Amino acid sequence: MSEKLIPVTVLTGYLGAGKTTLLNRILTEQHGKRYAVVINEFGESGVDNDLVVDTDEEVFEMNNGCICCTVRGDLIRIITGLMKRRDQFDGIIVETTGLADPAPVAQTFFVDEDVKARTRLDAIVTVVDAKHVLARLADSSEALEQIAFADVIVLNKLDLVTPEELTAIEARIRSINRYSTIHHATRADVPADKLLGINAFDLARVLENAPDFLDDDSHTHDEHMLSISLTTTTPLDAEKFNAWISGVLAMQGQDILRTKGILAFKDEDRKFAFQAVHMMADGDFITPWPQGRARESKLVFIGRNLNRPQLRRGFDSCVAA
What we know:
single chain, seven-stranded parallel sheet, five-stranded antiparallel sheet, alpha/beta
């Protein structure tokens, strides 16, 4: 019976850990398999769907809420719909928001009878930002839960820590979860066959550590966490934007956990993908803008103590003359 069940991989990890980078690696690797991808984002407007590479895989995006709360019904509905075309793909990848506790996500595959009858939870894969993980474990219960429930941990961004720091980080991770397999990575460079189709989720082990796993549906979120989305259809001036965002991150980077966006610069036919974790920013041009469609810049901030009017004014000041 188990051979007929569709394997599901839950891809989790805190904001900015590198989940989308890992997902893009999986989707572009020459492994000969097809995956349906379900993406969930925290906040009013998402950009992750635009950050995922253009492949033959189908991508389903769910916004406005934690995947374990308001959109669990959406997750069940999408998976139930996918089952009608199960011969068209080899597995399902669910990428959760960086603020999701993975336990209620995993519960979905055991408490809903239709989903349980058609799928099997293959593994919970948690991407960990080596640079910031110790700080996140100190101030975020979600970061701790993501590590605690992981079957596989991708310890990412190792180029940003020293060997001594790495030793301390691994010891801290092992104090939370002594069972998970740990893969080292710099830019989420872990082969897909180490993460998918590995049959790593062990319900008996989970129940040993969390006896109420199958019936505990309660969890909380950081009430001070905000998501602010800014958009404009007017092309941006690249120099103005770089100067403004550099100032914002320098002044408020400790409170801004994650910044990401797809930007349309004047006299440029390609999309610019911008990402930042705290004060560390990166960006590059990606795919061309589709012909005949409006070019909309979208920038999302996730963090604490965010001033929407101030950010809005700053973003608007970046439009090209």
